[in-house]
Amino acid sequence: MKLCSFVAIEIPSTTQDAIIKQTANLRQDYPKPDVRWVQTGNIHLTLKFLGDESPQNLKILARSLGFDAIKIEPFTISFSEMGIFPNARKPRIIWGGVSTPAILITVYNKIEEIASKLGHQPETRSFSPHITLGRIGNSFPMVNTKKMLMDFKSINLDCIDPLIISEIKIFKSDLKPGGPIYTSIHIIPFGK
Fold first, then answer.
1. If we measure between CA atoms, which residue out of 23, 36, 35 comes closest to residue 152?
2. Distance between CA atoms of 167 and 98, rounded to whole angstroms?
3. Which of 6, 106, 110, 116 minimizes the C-alpha distance to 58?
4. What values do phi and psi take at 105, rounded to 5?
5. Dist CA 182 CA 140 (whole Å)
6. Domain with 183 in it: what CATH number?
7. Which residues contact 79 (CB under 8 A, 6 or more apart)?
């Protein structure tokens, strides 16, 4: 049996609530089907999407990451502006920016290195730390893109308290009619 899985930094529920509060007007102005907003409880910072993977390989990955994680001290991230991937002409993802301390890049690169040794394709895009806040539907009117980008300027994610990151997690994802359910299956703490 394979599990749809990914490695991520879990965002605490209090911080998720603050993000939802900051984006409440945006969520109201752009409802389904134009935008499928990420539900509270599902906001996270993905470090590596693994796809379908065996529980045994996930255990090996967690153990391998653990050997390096003990050498890393907890670090702080903060939130910044909002934007759209890939661009305003073809908007697909609404994201919130995350600061990029050097240690986060080190963690990301280590995950990429270990995952590739287990047979995962290396990521070809450069690492752009972000939290996914919504997915823009195919029915989204293009004329709304400019308005949405202007609306982003009134949202202040950088007023949300910075987070101390002391671990990463491997999650499994179960797709349900009401949306995905993410369950932590391995916790990899930083520090000794």
1. 23
2. 16
3. 6
4. -65, -40
5. 27
6. 3.90.1140.10
7. 19, 96, 97, 98, 99, 131, 157, 158, 160
Considering just the CA atoms, what is the radius of gyration of the chain in Å? 17
Domain span holding position 110 = 3-189
Q: Are 145 and 88 in contact (CB under 8 A)?
A: yes
Residues 184 and 17 sit within 8 Å (Cβ to Cβ) = no
How many distinct structural domains can be found in the chain? 1
Cα separation, 166 vs 161, whole angstroms: 16
Output the pTM of the full model.
Answer: 0.93
Q: Which of 72, 64, 82 is nearest to 159 (CA)?
A: 82
Q: Report pLDDT digits (tens) over 118-176.
A: 899 999 989 999 999 999 998 888 888 989 999 999 998 999 999 999 999 999 999 98
Task: Work out the burial of residue 91: count CB atoms within 10 Å of its CB; fewer than 13 is exposed, 13-18 middle, 19 or more buried.
Answer: buried
- For residues 127 and 9, is the Cβ–Cβ distance under 8 A? no
Tokens of 37: 């907003």
Longest dimension (CA), the chain: 52
